[in-house]
Fold this sequence. Notes:
Layout: H1 19-24, H2 27-30, H3 33-44, H4 51-64, H5 73-80, H6 83-94
Amino acid sequence: xxxxxxxxxxxxxxxxxxxxxxxxxxxxxxxxxxxxxxxxxxxxxxxxxxxxxxxxxxxxxxxxxxxxxxxxxxxxxxxxxxxxxxxxxxxxxxxxxxxxxxx
Length: 103
């Protein structure tokens, strides 16, 4: 039974690479906070959001709005008051027990 799985395959199994993570890594989404939140909104419609997608979206937004970024302080304040951003933070606190230790 153990020999049926190829431990040395280049691509991980489908369940380890959900489509939302691939979409978050796409060139169009990486630099646009609105598209990052749109991917999160689409992912949040599932019954149980995947913690990896939530962490990736939150981290990506954090990198976009770091102090050396193109966006102004007003943009950062607007993001913090945005409904989807607050929902993302709330979902992260809800799945806190399932987050890996490295996160």
